[in-house]
TrEMBL record:
InterPro entries: CysJ-like_FAD-binding, FAD-bd_FR_type, Flavdoxin-like, Flavodoxin/NO_synth, Flavoprot_Pyr_Nucl_cyt_Rdtase, Flavoprotein-like_sf, FNR_nucleotide-bd, NADPH_Cyt_P450_Rdtase_alpha. This is Methionine synthase reductase. It catalyses: 2 cob(II)alamin + A + 2 H2O + 2 H(+) = 2 aquacob(III)alamin + AH2. It comes from Motacilla alba. Residues 9-152 form the Flavodoxin-like domain. It is found in: Cytoplasm.
Length: 699
């Protein structure tokens, strides 16, 4: 029940991985200090709020998932407001402010928030505060923090206008319908995800939601020899500044150790996305040579006895555990090495000040401690500032405490970005760097996010290989560095590589040949269908595929499927197919040399390859990258896209490839159409809109 002495506003969040919820909770915590009461709900809880009758201002925090979709928790809400029968004044009474979260590494930046924002505007809702779009690529806090700072004045102005309007309506009730509505004030705050457009000012001591840490509270000066800042050391001005640090998040989780025995929950209970399938790994092949820079593996799964279905171009998710040795290290630091196999009961702490506190859905009510740390918590997650703030209270050394305060403060924003976020620092790295920090198990459960299943592109066709599903991945490597004391492999790729090692390197006593399996190792997977990244429905339509490195994976499935269709339907007309593939070295990481087979049997019409690190003695150096080869084929690319209305597919790394390919396509369209670059960009946008220019990319 909202406190009557404080003015109320409705606070809704839609989250996929917990970030939007954490930001909404920060807004809820700060509201009290500004004399306001936030009525907070997940946007999916439509039985607890009603926008059709809402009179108070509404604040919405919403993330983006997939290739620009609203988060799963917002799907019902979005479907409801996109009802075409709703009149244009359906939300004319509503005033709102929206904060969208996204990542500019992906094509449809903040599209979840933009979709909701645009539709609310179409239905007559009005902004009381400008929309903020925060970019996880450069740091969400660079937009989130100033957006929240400006929110309070905007809310108070909106509430004051509402109060005045209500008073006017009461006074002139009889003729209110003939009066023009009061002008709607919009509190201007132009926010951009671009760092250079932000002007963050040190506001000094703020209200009770911020603790001002004075220099004389803690006597710490970085050692004179450290002229450069690092994870554990600061330099002026940060080291000499009074700090604005976030309010301490309220504790809300309680963990009880139990002497009873039992069984851990099944992994399927941890997944809310749908049905999971436990399937055997039947084959593993290393596609790269031992001296290649990256190790690429192909795994084959047996799905014959399951209801798992897919199309070429789809993705699926693998449920993976944290690294065993990392879990053991964490147990050791927590002082719980002897209790890893003990069952624990996780519940909400009595008397907590956290609004609507509940046990996180990804944490079983009862399981072993090791199960929680292995399968439930993302222990590799980059710690958020709220987590750092909580860790301050668990740190006994004064110098370490001060540095953690700096890293979560406004003044230390740049240090946080450089030494934690960009360095991909995780909890174990922090605990190694700050040895006097001894957090409790309950604190980890409160602040570490859910361990996410990892997504992979399917690299096969069920038509070509019935009952089999293949996928390809590089084993991710994180080298040791100043902020990371040890090198690590990717959570899922490292686990998979270790799991299939016996298949790749069978013992001398084994009768099986390399890559062939007699193993019964199983992994749990669930489908993640792609709504657009599929072969053209009309087989006569030509298409172009661009997939360097492991980006070739879905196109192997495309070509297998096309080959089988050609065998089964000899009377069909099939359009031409182009594949642009690139890698570093022809003899080390040319992943699928059997592409020549597709070329010979006519499934693949044109194959263009390039090798970026191979030296050449040719008079004219060959192209190094796929975008260079595309430019050499400019006339053909333009013909396929413009004259023959073909499709264009890209798969692979976004930052270092997909954007360069897009630029190349714009140049090609501009040159072949004899149009300026802006016109070519418009054509490319139309191709995207028509789902004829499709991407499956990752950062």
């Amino acid at each position: 029940m909202c406190c009557e002495s404080k003015r109320r506003f409705l606070l809704l969040y839609a989250t996929q991985k917990g970030q939007a919820k954490a930001i909404a909770e920060e807004i809820w915590q700060q509201a009290g200090a500004h004399g306001l009461e936030a009525d907070m709900h997940c946007i999916s809880e439509m039985d607890k709020y009603n926008l059709e009758t809402e009179k108070d201002p509404v604040v919405i925090v919403i993330s983006t998932t997939g290739t620009g979709d609203p988060p799963d928790t917002a799907r019902k809400f979005v479907k409801k407001i996109q009802d075409k029968t709703l009149p244009p004044d359906h939300f004319a009474h509503l005033q709102y402010g929206l904060l969208g979260l996204g990542d500019s590494e992906y094509m449809f930046f903040c599209n979840g928030g933009r979709t909701v924002d645009r539709r609310l505007q179409e239905l007559g809702a009005q902004h009381f505060y400008d929309t903020g779009l925060a970019d996880d690529c450069v740091g969400l806090e660079l937009v989130v923090d100033p957006w929240i700072d400006g929110l309070w004045l905007a809310l108070k102005e909106a509430l004051q206008l509402q109060k005045e309007k209500e008073g006017m309506n009461n006074a002139v009730n009889a003729v209110s319908s003939s009066l023009s509505p009061a002008p709607h004030a919009v509190h201007e705050l132009k926010l951009s995800s671009e760092v250079q457009n932000l002007k963050l000012e040190d506001e000094g001591a703020r209200d009770s939601d911020i603790l001002s840490q004075k220099l004389d509270d803690i006597n710490l000066v970085a050692p004179a020899r450290d002229t450069e800042p690092s994870l554990v050391h600061s330099v002026p001005p940060v080291s000499q500044s009074a700090l604005n640090i976030p309010a301490l998040p309220p504790e809300y989780i309680e963990v009880e150790f139990q002497n009873t025995q039992g069984e851990n929950p099944h992994l399927s209970s941890l997944i809310s996305e749908g049905t999971t399938f436990e399937v055997p790994v039947t084959r593993a092949v290393q596609l790269t040579r031992e001296d290649a820079i990256k190790t690429a593996l192909l795994l084959e799964l047996d799905i014959a006895d399951t209801a798992f279905q897919y199309q070429p171009g789809d993705a699926f998710c693998v449920i993976c555990p944290n690294n065993v040795s990392e879990v053991e290290k964490l147990l050791h630091i927590l002082g719980l090495s002897e209790k890893g196999d003990d069952f624990v009961c996780v519940k909400v702490k009595q008397g907590t000040k956290k609004k609507g506190a509940s046990r996180p859905q990804h944490i079983p009510e009862r399981s072993t401690l090791k199960f929680i740390l292995t399968w439930c918590l993302e222990i590799r997650a980059v710690p958020k500032k709220a987590f750092l703030r909580a860790l301050v209270e668990c740190t006994s050394d004064a110098g370490e405490k001060r540095r953690l305060q700096e890293l979560c403060s406004r003044q230390g924003a740049s240090d946080y970005t450089h030494f934690i976020r960009d360095s991909n620092v995780c909890l174990l790295d922090l605990l190694h760097a700050f040895p006097s920090c001894k957090p409790s198990l309950s604190l980890l459960i409160e602040h570490l996010p859910k361990l996410q299943a990892r997504s992979y592109s399917v690299s096969s066709s069920n038509l070509y290989q019935p009952g089999r599903l293949c996928f390809v991945f590089n084993v991710v490597e994180f080298p040791a560095g100043p902020s990371r004391p040890v090198s690590r492999k990717g959570v899922c790729t490292g686990w998979l590589a270790e799991l299939v090692a016996p298949l790749l390197h069978p013992s001398n006593n084994s009768q099986s040949t390399k890559g062939e399996s007699t193993s019964t190792e199983k992994i749990s997977i669930f489908p993640r269908p792609n709504n657009a990244f599929h072969l053209p429905a009309d087989p006569s339509v030509p298409f172009i595929m661009v997939g360097p490195g492991t980006g070739i994976a879905p196109f192997i499935g495309f070509l297998q499927h096309r080959q089988k269709l050609r065998e089964q339907h000899t009377d069909w007309e099939f359009g031409e197919t182009w594949l642009f593939f690139g890698c570093r070295h022809q003899d080390r990481d040319y992943l699928f040399k059997q592409l020549q087979c597709f070329l010979k049997n006519g499934t693949l019409t044109h194959l263009k390859v390039c090798f970026s690190r191979d030296s050449s003695t040719a008079e004219v150096a060959p192209p190094k990258y796929v975008q260079d080869v595309l430019r050499l084929c400019a006339k053909e690319v333009a013909r396929v896209l413009l004259k023959e209305r073909g499709y264009f597919y890209i798969c692979g790394d976004k930052k270092h490839m997909a954007d360069d390919v897009s630029d190349a396509v714009v140049d090609i369209l501009s040159m072949e159409m004899e149009a300026d670059k802006l016109e070519a960009m418009k054509i490319l946008a139309m191709l995207r809109e028509a789902k004829r220019y499709l991407q499956d990319v990752w950062s």
